[in-house]
Amino acid sequence: MAQADAKRLLARPVIFLGPPGAGKGTQAKLVATHYGVPHLSTGDMLRENVQFGTALGALAKPIMERGELVPDDLILRMVQERIARADCARGFVFDGFPRTLAQAEALDAILEKQKSGPAAVIYFKVPEEILMRRMTGRRTCKIGFEIYNIYDRPPKVEGRCDVDGGELIQRPDDRPEVIRERVVAYRTQTEPLVAYYRGRQTLDEIDASASVTAVTNAVFSALGRLECRI
Ligand code: AP5
């Protein structure tokens, strides 16, 4: 029921906001597939640039490996170019964007210009000890960026993606010392966005520490609540 209710909402963009390792990417893939809209992960876009050796990738690589945020102007240019493509006309799910107040304000201006209405923001709440386990156990497909976890979501064949057979790797920024820096960047630069969106009444929060299926249900319920409110 919650899923059917939420389905009408995706005329507007959706933002998944939360700390690193909270499960935003896992859920964004499921929700975007459900609605038939693109899943826009700025982390995946940057990793793709690193993989293909672009100028943006060369700039972003050392910053990402330190666990810091890539400068706003580079991110905004990349996002603007992506959402201008035809496949975003029916909506999209952002995962990992916006990440700073400047990014959030720039996105507001873009959405106002597009007359797409404000984005629905889902805030993923997870205790820090769970985040560490999720990130150190994460493995990602080199080809399609499918997400696994050696503890909670293992692939059928060790080291290989269930979807395309690609090699599963550990992200360089999933080392404990980099994870700590990413959490600091989140607390100082991204967490203030919770208050920013709460003030606009466009945010709903979920307990993202539960199982993947329980979190998916919570996301659809939150989208349904937001549909009534925004
Ligand atoms: P990015 O790739 O966006 O990383 P992040 O936000 O730190 O988020 P993660 O990808 O670590 O976690 P997630 O919440 O998506 O969790 P996932 O679903 O994978 O960014 C990387 C870097 O790029 C940044 O540090 C920065 O340098 C740069 N960057 C990106 N965007 C930027 C921006 N807008 N501005 C500036 N810089 C930017 O799940 C994690 C693990 O948990 C997986 O193993 C998964 O299988 C498992 N899991 C998920 N859900 C559950 C569950 N419910 N139960 C059990 N296990 C679960």
General description of the model:
It is built from 10 helices and 8 strands. Helix content is 50%, strand content 13%. It is globular and about 45 Å long. It has helices at 2-7, 24-35, 42-51, 55-66, 72-83, 101-114, 128-136, 176-190, 192-199, 212-229; strands at residues 14-17, 39-41, 93-95, 120-125, 138-141, 147-149, 168-169, 203-207. By secondary structure, it is an alpha/beta fold. It has a domain at 3-37 and 90-128 and 178-229: P-loop containing nucleotide triphosphate hydrolases (Rossmann fold, 3-Layer(aba) Sandwich). The strands form 2 sheets. Strands 2-3-1-4-8 form a 5-stranded parallel sheet, sandwiched between helices. The longest helix has 18 residues, at 212-229. Bound molecules: BIS(adenosine)-5'-pentaphosphate (AP5). BIS(adenosine)-5'-pentaphosphate binds at residues 18, 20-26, 42-43, 46, 63-64, 67-70, 75, 95-97, 99, 103, 134-135, 137-138, 147-149, 152-153, 173, 182, 211-212, 215.
Describe this protein with a few key phrases.
230 residues, alpha/beta, 3-stranded antiparallel beta sheet, 10 helices, binds BIS(adenosine)-5'-pentaphosphate
How would you summarize this macromolecular structure in one to three sentences?
The protein is of the alpha/beta class and 230 residues long. It is built from 10 helices and 8 strands.
